[in-house]
Amino acid sequence: MAAPVLCGRTAVLCRTLRGISSSNPCGLLLQTASYNPRPLRLNLSDPYIPDKESDETPAWQKTARYDGKLYGRYGSASGVDPASLWPSHEQLDRVVAEEREWQPTLEEMLRNIELKEKEEAEKRQAKERLIAANMAKMPKMVADWRREKRETKQKLKEDKARREQLLEEARVRFGYALDPRSPKFLEMVAEVEKEEKKKKKLMKRRLKDEQTAAPVTTPADAS
């Protein structure tokens, strides 16, 4: 029901506007063009000055920035002391520091560029020296890698041969093949290692005794 009513009102409005434009279109344009709003006048006789002591006054109306706006709008009628609007020593120092940081002099800019180029050159030279040193070490590094690879391969080969020897010894001792993970095999390996250590210790002691008992040959005896 609301849709037909809205359509009817829209049609009436369109006919009204069409009639106005067809009857006197220039008058409507002239009326629109001649509209001159009344200028906004400042109330200098009774300006609005917020009470900073009141709790109802907003906090942003108690700031120094708002005081500057009041003085710029009303002048001395605002009751603001223009000396209070001047920045403090700390603010001036901060402004000067920001200008020095973001707006350096030409000499400072040239000096900074020179220092930056010098730093980049030192980094590049250090990198080149490191590359040269590593390239000089490359043959030795390759030789060491190949030696370690051969030693690792030889050790794996020896471990495999020793493992097969121990398995064969276990088969001969017990009369059947043992699982390398079985407790009986591990116990036998511990005994074999203990015997080998004992033999090495005896051999070392025998060599020491032989060296002690050997006669010392002097040059006179040799002649």
TrEMBL record:
Biased composition (Basic residues): 197-206
Statement: the UniProt record of this protein carries the keyword Ribosomal protein: yes
Residue ranges of the TM segments: none
Keywords, in A-Z order: Cell cycle, Coiled coil, Mitochondrion, Nucleus, Ribonucleoprotein, Ribosomal protein
UniProt-listed Gene3D superfamilies: Growth arrest and DNA-damage-inducible proteins-interacting protein 1
Any one cellular-component term (Gene Ontology): ribonucleoprotein complex
InterPro entries: Ribosomal_mL64, Ribosomal_mL64_sf
Region (Disordered): 197-223
Main location: mitochondrion
Subcellular location field: Mitochondrion; Nucleus
Record has Secreted as a keyword: no
Biological role stated in the UniProt entry: Acts as a negative regulator of G1 to S cell cycle phase progression by inhibiting cyclin-dependent kinases. Inhibitory effects are additive with GADD45 proteins but also occur in the absence of GADD45 proteins. Acts as a repressor of the orphan nuclear receptor NR4A1 by inhibiting AB domain-mediated transcriptional activity. May be involved in the hormone-mediated regulation of NR4A1 transcriptional activity. May play a role in mitochondrial protein synthesis.
Family: Belongs to the mitochondrion-specific ribosomal protein mL64 family.
PANTHER family membership: GROWTH ARREST AND DNA DAMAGE-INDUCIBLE PROTEINS-INTERACTING PROTEIN 1 GADD45GIP1, LARGE RIBOSOMAL SUBUNIT PROTEIN ML64
Name of the featured protein: Large ribosomal subunit protein mL64
